[in-house]
Every structure is written in C-alpha cells, then in structure tokens.
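Hi all, posting the design record for the shared folder.

TITLE: backbone redesign
STEP: 1 of 1
STRUCTURE INPUT:
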C-alpha cells in the first residue's frame, strides 16, 4: 500500500464516524495498512494526565501499560521531543529506557521494533502513536516514511476526538474501558488518596505509586485499583 493510499484510508475511516469511535477505527487502519503487530495512540502522552485512546490488541495494551507505569519509553520520548523515536536495538534501548525495556521484553520477547511518532496538533505535540512489529530489524525506512505520513493524517482525524476528551466530565468513552479509566479519572483519584494519606504533594504521590507498581511487578492500573478498593 503506497503512502498516499494509506493516508486516504485514514481519511476515509473517519467519514461519518462518531467521534468516540474515531481512535478505534484509526488503530485498525494503521494495523491493517502497515506491517504492524500492535498499534497504540495516546494524548497528553508525556504528562501525568496521559490518556490512552486505543490499543489494537493485547500486545499494544501491554506496550501502553508498561510505558504508563514506568513513565519512560519510545512514545514518551517522541511526545517530549516532537521527533520520531525508533527502538530496534534492544541493548541500546536498555540503556535509554531500562525500566520500559525490561518490563516490555519480559512480556513480548518476540517484538523486534517499536516505532513512535509524535501527534502534532498545529504547533503543539499532544500525543503519540506507537507501532510495534515482529519484523526482524523493525520497520524499513520506506515503511517508516509511509507511517509518518499516515500519522500526520491521524492527527487531523483525531481533532473531533480531542475535543470530546476535553469536554468529557469523567470517563472518556474509549476502549478498553477498564484500562482507559485507570489511565484517566481513576488514577487521578488514587493520586489524591495517596497524597492525603501520606501527606505529600500529588507529584510525589504519583511517583510513589509508580515505584510500588514497578517493585511489585504490577501495572499502575492495578495499583490504582488496589488503592481505590481500600
């Protein structure tokens, strides 16, 4: 599929599509049109208010969850720098993102590459797209170029979803609902609980939750659920 064809697929996917269904459709288009074994999208990727929009399968969900828990990884770097970030050498990756690499490789040792692309909304990066692949050596250069063009089209297609996110009072209506809830309202409530209980600010409370998650081998979503159950 040529780059222009994939971009057209992205544009067609959201014609007459309700905003709440846009992320899921876009994930499907990228997963189908690229040699991708997992696709994720997130907004506010490098902030505590991170919001997962979609994950194409369990591998993609794990990719999001590990980065969300340890607050490092290719998509966070892409969102911070506004530049594409490509992880194909896992030894180098282990030096740059040791917690992410250890956590994700334990779950999916067969993944050969993770490619992260910033989502530009005008002059601002408000999110990132991750593409994971089992292709040896990761995506080839021409496929990366094709993916980058498609992600630019995705950013435009996500504008209605971005507005819906900003207007939503509590739970954004994305799927899977339990993971999305943990990435959004539940986490913020849990941070408040920990901050009050431990008499610390919210940044330190979030750091403590991440440390508990990493130390126990749980995800931040699981730690959040535990806190809210007590």
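Okay, here is what came back for every position:
SEQUENCE:
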């Amino acid at each position: 599929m040529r780059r222009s064809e994939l971009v057209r697929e992205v544009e067609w996917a959201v014609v007459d599509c309700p905003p709440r269904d846009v992320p899921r459709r876009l994930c499907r288009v990228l997963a189908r049109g690229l040699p991708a074994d997992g696709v994720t999208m997130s907004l506010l990727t490098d902030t505590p208010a991170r919001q997962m929009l979609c994950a194409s399968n369990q591998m993609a969900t794990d990719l999001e969850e590990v980065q969300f828990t340890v607050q490092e990884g290719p998509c966070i770097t892409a969102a911070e720098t506004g530049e594409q970030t490509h992880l194909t050498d896992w030894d180098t990756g282990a030096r740059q993102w040791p917690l992410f690499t250890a956590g994700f490789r334990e779950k999916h040792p067969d993944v050969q590459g993770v490619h992260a692309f910033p989502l530009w909304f005008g002059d601002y990066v408000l999110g990132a797209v991750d593409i994971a692949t089992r292709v040896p050596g990761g995506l080839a250069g021409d496929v990366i170029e094709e993916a980058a063009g498609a992600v630019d089209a995705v950013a435009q297609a996500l504008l209605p979803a971005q507005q819906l996110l900003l207007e939503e009072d509590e739970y954004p209506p994305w799927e899977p609902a339990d993971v999305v809830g943990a990435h959004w309202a539940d986490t913020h409530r849990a941070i408040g609980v920990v901050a009050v209980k431990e008499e610390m600010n919210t940044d330190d409370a979030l750091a403590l939750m991440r440390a508990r998650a990493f130390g126990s081998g749980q995800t931040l979503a699981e730690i959040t659920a535990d806190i809210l159950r007590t």
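COMMENT: The chain has twelve helices and five strands.
Let me know if anyone wants the other runs.
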